[in-house]
Amino acid sequence: MTGQRPDEYDEYNETDEYEAPPQEDAPGPSAADMERFNREESKYLDRRRSETRSALWKLAAGSVFILIAASMILGALLPAIIPNRTEDPDPNRVTATVSRIFDARTIGVQIDGVEQTVRYIGIDGPLFGDPLYESAVSTQARPRCQ
């Protein structure tokens, strides 16, 4: 590095240039020491990054495991905690057996051994003699799953 002489020299001339001492003679760590330090620091930082990534993966895997285990435990315990409601939601509901089919809108049922006629409300089925009457009656006569 070249530069001007410091002011402390008596014979100062603006054309004279000051030469800095070579870098090897400068006080402090040498270039080799700095290179070795940088390599060691780089290795240390790489090791820390690797450890951090490893810790993050372990944390993520542990979190997923805990979530799955908690959902399985809740799935097993929830039915025991919350009772199953099997009572009929409508107390006026009556169980009946279909004994006759009059037409697409009217059936005969047995309720406690007594025959009664039931007419569907809100069903616009075909009347006797209509083209689809036989199809509607036969569909109504098919057994259904309960």
Keywords:
single chain; 146 residues; alpha+beta; two-stranded antiparallel ribbon; 2 helices; rod-shaped
Explain the overall architecture.
The structure is a single chain. Helix content is 41%, strand content 14%. By secondary structure, it is an alpha+beta fold. A hairpin with a 2-residue loop joins β4 and β5 (114-119). It is rod-shaped.
Brief overview, please?
Helix content is 41%, strand content 14%. The protein is of the alpha+beta class and 146 residues long. Strand 4 and strand 5 form a beta hairpin.
What count of helical segments does DSSP give?
2
What are the secondary-structure elements, in order, as H or E? EEHEEEH
**DSSP, total strands:** 5
Proportion of β residues? 5-15%
What oligomeric state best describes the polypeptide chains here?
single chain
Structural class: alpha+beta
Distance between the termini: 99 Å
Task: Outline the secondary-structure elements.
Elements: E1 2-3, E2 18-19, H1 31-81, E3 97-101, E4 106-111, E5 114-119, H2 133-141
